[in-house]
User: Which sequence fits this backbone?
């Protein structure tokens, strides 16, 4: 009986000492959805940029500048003497309006009122955030933003819908340097 118990115990020990086997996923998903989304976004960006380029080509009265951030702009009023542009943490005071690329007004200067904004410390759509950093006090600049530089896929939950490229005229009234506001 003792030999039988030892043999049974040995048999149990040998059969139960397998290394654990990894579980296989039930569904194997590929990156096809992500790949499709990337392709769709690239096509949308190319279409918007081509549309903006047509606007620029037709507008011979203004000299457009291509930004590093992927938007275009021209100066309505340029300061050629000052070299001071806002940096991280500076406070800017500005007015702006928003139009679609056909020139239809979405928000007027009066609707948006005068904005006081801490550079890169508060929420503002990407293109305008970057555009303000290019400006000097007293300048007025018109920006053309593809939707990925504006409100993108989500819009603003009010008047700006999904994937709407924007034209924005901005007047930078005042720059207060961060070092003068610290105690």
Assistant:
């Amino acid at each position: 009986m003792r030999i039988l118990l030892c043999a049974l115990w040995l048999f149990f020990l040998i059969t139960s000492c397998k290394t654990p086997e990894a579980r296989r996923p039930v569904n194997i998903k590929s990156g096809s959805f992500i790949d499709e989304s990337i392709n769709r976004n690239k096509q949308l960006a190319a279409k918007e940029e081509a549309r903006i380029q047509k606007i620029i080509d037709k507008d011979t009265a203004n000299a457009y500048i291509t930004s590093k951030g992927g938007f275009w702009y021209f100066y309505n009023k340029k300061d050629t003497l000052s070299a001071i542009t806002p940096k991280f943490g500076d406070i800017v005071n500005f007015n702006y309006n928003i139009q679609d690329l056909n020139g239809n007004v979405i928000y007027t200067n009066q609707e948006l009122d005068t904005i006081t904004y801490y550079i890169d410390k508060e929420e503002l759509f990407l293109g305008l955030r970057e555009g303000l950093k290019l400006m000097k006090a007293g300048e007025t600049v018109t920006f053309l933003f593809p939707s990925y530089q504006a409100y993108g896929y989500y819009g603003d939950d009010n008047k700006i819908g999904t994937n709407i490229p924007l034209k924005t005229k901005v007047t930078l009234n005042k720059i207060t340097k961060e070092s003068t506001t610290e105690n």
